[in-house]
Design a protein that fits this description.
about 575 residues, Rossmann fold, ABC transporter transmembrane region fold, 2 domains, single chain, alpha/beta
Length: about 575
């Protein structure tokens, strides 16, 4: 019972949110309903005209053509007007549906942009993509069917009842009494389809996540011979998806034959009652013909509405998943208009900082650090010691659990993220390039850069030579993953991108890990020039790259255990000396 209540509550919440988006299109919606009402009225008027025409056929050789011809003209006019109104209604419904879906998808993508990294890191990327693409598409299909068939169906039922009551209240009573049977059948089926559609939607997201993961890491899969294991995993998910889809389709496919059977029973009952009435002379053959047409018109929407309800079940299930994403708590809002002063001098301090990704697993505790403007700070230590976490805190990708991080004396939580991140230039071990030209990728941080500035940055990073060898040079279009560029070439582009905008503070997280030693030596000179007068944080595993740092922070288990320059730390003979000795024993 509680599960049903929970499902109903989620459905109601999703429906309210969908209606919230639809309210922006009230005028179009009102016109759509108006067109639906007029088209239904004209459609229901046609059987009445046909019944009159039948009554004008008095007998063999006694056809009253004088009365039949005007009736036929009216039928033709009604048919043309109905087609035109339905065409206009469908145009409006399509516009409403796709505008609403565009807004929902836009809001979902906008929410991804402001979600805390904790959410992104804890969900499979493919599953998030599935919510924004596949689930929204399913929602669009359900909305479109709802608009085009639900309104028309409801109006048809109400209009047909009015016409039947005007023709013969007694026979109408037979129809009304038997209607709940059709509603019961539809309700029974719809309650069994929701759980299957939700499982289908969730499993589809799981499958999308696996496919996305395998496509992006196919080299690793093949290198380790993991194809068979991945196929088995895919087959298992695919089998579950097939089972859930089959069950959902089975229950939803019962709707049409179930309601049709009930409708045929209703039709037979009305035909019997109408025939008895005609024998007693209370109805004419034409009126009975009209009434039977109205019974078909009356019961047909129940079939359509049952199908719509099934489709809406699926649509609302997908809507729940989309709105779960949209309703996620965004990252902590920025203080309004609180920006770092310009220019930033680059003084950075961490005061009694505590942080952990998982509350049950301690990572950083009581971390204190003071960096003077223009200092070059190297961060070294074994894997998992907290180096990258420290960078995440400096950039405010994550907020500290306790203590504070200050830049030029200001708590970074009291300034906007954009002003903070504009003050940093960042080159990571993981390269990221967007779909577009080399020029567009280089000028991301400085869109108004001149060609001379761009080329100078490329030459400083030693990327210019290979860029000129590309088919169209700086105008060569590259894919989001860099296409045919090597990992080292992609990293050189990322370095050039930072060299072009040169902010007052720099973060280099294994920035030369994919570059050959000879090129690295040249880039180190460029880095040295770039870091002059700028506060720099350099994360490195190769200790040869950090010997010239002003301060070396040695981290272990989330704590800074040693601090000093290269020579001082070697003389101490502590953990840094052991790390250095392990790399340069000779």
């Amino acid at each position: 019972m509680s599960n049903k209540k929970g499902t109903s509550a989620r459905h109601s919440s999703a429906l309210r949110q969908v209606l919230h988006y639809i309210r922006h299109y009230r005028v179009r919606l009102a016109l759509s309903v108006l067109f639906a009402a007029f088209s239904v009225a004209l459609t229901l008027y046609i059987p009445l005209l046909i019944g009159r025409a039948i009554d004008y056929i008095i007998g063999k050789g006694a056809v009253d053509f004088g009365r039949i011809v005007p009736v036929l003209v009216k039928i033709g006019v009604c048919a043309v007007a109905t087609a035109l109104l339905q065409w206009l209604m469908n145009i409006l419904n399509n516009k409403i549906t796709y505008e609403v879906v565009r807004e929902i998808r836009g809001d979902a993508f906008a929410k991804i942009e402001i979600l805390p990294l904790k959410y992104i890191d804890s969900h499979a990327y493919g599953e998030i993509v599935s919510r924004v693409t596949a689930d929204v598409d399913q929602l669009a299909d359900g909305l479109l069917m709802g608009f085009t068939q639900l309104f028309t169906g409801v109006v048809t039922i109400l209009g047909t009842l009015v016409f039947m009551l005007l023709l013969h209240p007694g026979i109408t009573a037979v129809v009304v009494v038997m209607t709940p049977i059709s509603l019961f059948v539809a309700k029974f089926i719809s309650t069994h389809t929701h759980s299957m559609f939700r499982l289908q939607s969730e499993t589809r997201g799981e499958q999308t996540a696996l496919i996305d993961e395998m496509v992006n890491h196919q080299k690793v899969v093949q290198a380790f011979g993991h194809e068979e294991a991945n196929l088995e995993t895919f087959d298992e998910i695919n089998d579950r998806l097939s089972q859930y889809s089959l069950r959902a389709t089975f229950f939803s496919s019962l709707t049409n034959p179930g309601t049709r059977f009930v409708n045929n029973v209703v039709y037979a009952a009305v035909a019997l009652a109408g025939a008895l009435a005609a024998i007693h002379g209370t109805v004419t053959p034409g009126l009975l013909s009209s009434f039977l047409s109205y019974v078909n018109q009356y019961t047909k929407p129940f079939n359509e509405i049952s199908g719509v309800i099934t489709e809406l079940q699926n649509a609302l299930t997908c809507a729940e998943r989309v709105f779960e994403l949209i309703d996620e708590e965004p990252q902590v809002s920025d203080e309004r208009n609180a920006e770092l002063p310009s220019p930033v001098s680059g003084g950075v301090s961490l005061e009694n900082v505590a942080f952990s990704y998982d509350p049950s697993v301690r990572l950083i505790e009581g971390l204190n650090l003071r960096v003077q403007p223009g200092q070059r700070v190297a961060i070294v230590g074994p894997t998992g010691c907290g180096k990258t976490t420290l960078i995440n805190l400096l950039m405010r990708f994550y907020d500290v659990n306790d203590g504070c991080v200050r830049v030029d004396g200001q708590d970074i939580r009291s300034v906007t993220r954009s002003s903070l991140r504009r003050s940093y230039g960042m080159v990571l071990q993981e390269t990221w390039l967007k779909n577009g030209t080399v020029r567009e990728n280089l000028c991301m941080g400085k869109p108004d850069a001149s060609d001379e500035e761009m080329i100078a940055a490329a030459m400083a990073s030693h990327a210019h030579s290979f860029i000129k060898r590309l088919p169209d040079g700086y105008d060569t279009v590259i894919a989001g993953d860099g296409g045919s560029l090597s990992q080292g070439q992609k990293q050189l582009l990322c370095i050039a991108r930072v060299m072009l905008c040169l902010p007052p503070m720099l973060i280099l997280d294994e920035a030369t890990s994919s570059i050959d030693t000879r090129t690295e030596l040249k880039i180190q000179d460029a880095f040295a020039n770039m870091m002059k007068g700028r506060t720099s944080f350099v994360v490195a595993h190769r200790l040869s790259t950090v010997r010239d740092a002003d301060v070396i922070l040695v981290m272990r288990d989330g704590h800074i255990i040693e601090q000093g320059d290269h020579d001082t730390l070697l003389q101490k003979g502590g953990f840094y000396a052991k790390l250095y000795g392990s790399q340069f024993e000779e």
